[in-house]
Write a structure and sequence with these properties.
The protein is mostly helical and 119 residues long. It has helices at 5-15, 29-44, 53-58, 72-88, 96-113.
Amino acid sequence: MKPNLWFMLLLASCDTAVTPSDVAPNPHRDAARAALELHCGSCHREDSPTADPAALVVYNLNDLLWPSKMKSEHVADLVVQFEDRAMADAALLPDVPTVKRFVETELALRCKRNPLECT
């Protein structure tokens, strides 16, 4: 009996699947964290006297791996919220591209790790 070609191709593809450990971390994470700490840290840092418990559930900048607990929709919304704040406060404008690069890269990396997260 000849081996089923489809089954052999399926097995071969399993050996080369991308695992989370194969995907490099987001190179823009630290730069985005610095920008967010400056402009959003009052709510998103647990050591801030004005920390918001609801905001900390979304992301906590005290955690060096802060994006790892975020849902993808929260990551995508990060740039929208940051741009909205920049419209009201021009001091944020220089950091908008940093946050955008982080969000675009983070969503692409998540898609690579788990294609079900791709939209």
